[in-house]
Amino acid sequence: MSQKVVMISGASKGLGRALALDFAKKGYALVLAARGADQLYQLERELKKEGATTLVMPGDLSKEEDVERFVSLALAEFGRIDVLINNASIFGPGPTLLLDYAQEEMTRVMHMNTMLPFLVTKKVLPAMLENKRGVVITLTSEAGKTGFAEWGAYGISKFAVEGMIETWADELDGTGVQMYLVDPGEMNTDMHAIAVPDCDYPLAEPEERLPIFHYLATGEAPTGTRFEAAAFRDGLNEWGVGL
């Protein structure tokens, strides 16, 4: 199969949906997962109208059995995965002081935001290593390197994600599999509305944050690098590389 394959978690809305539509326009085959079945199937219908090759699966990828099914179906259908985008995450209950944070919410957010990219990446890696190439792009946040009051488990989970990807990048250096972190910045999404319910400043649309992902999909950037999507605009990235 000559067509490249991109797998995207959390693809039913927000940045994940924008990524799916954009990678389809670039000619990729799409493997998409999300918990929201109705929105995911609606996206599938839109993509198929445009002639895109798609495989979709509603499910919770923080659960190992759903990951096993999802990745196995993708490899059976396409034989390989060239690019994995770990996009799915949740914010949690909204702005909450850590002192008031419920234990069950801390457990839920940490599990979803850290175990999901861990499990999916772990399942995808063997095929990438066998092919001696592959790209894994994992979403992070400014809250993954700076602690912000009332962002609770979300920020803490992103600290963990950054450490995980840096560890994998070091372990896999020289294998042909590239690991990247992308901070998309503040965007007009449902998650941002939960995090900042009284936002009174302009926000970027998810479609404005896409160029960095196509650059990283080439695997040309140094593995383990952390990128800010806002630095990539007007077809030119911060190193002067045309996109």
Automatic annotation (TrEMBL):
UniProt keyword annotations, A-Z: Oxidoreductase
Gene3D superfamilies: NAD(P)-binding Rossmann-like Domain (3.40.50.720)
InterPro entries on file: NAD(P)-bd_dom_sf, Sc_DH/Rdtase_CS, SDR_fam
Taxonomy, superkingdom: Bacteria
Record GO terms (molecular function): oxidoreductase activity
CDD domains membership: SDR_c
Pfam families: adh_short
Family that this chain belongs to: Belongs to the short-chain dehydrogenases/reductases (SDR) family.
Protein known as: Short-chain dehydrogenase
Annotated organism of origin: Shouchella lonarensis
Record lineage: Bacteria, Bacillati, Bacillota, Bacilli, Bacillales
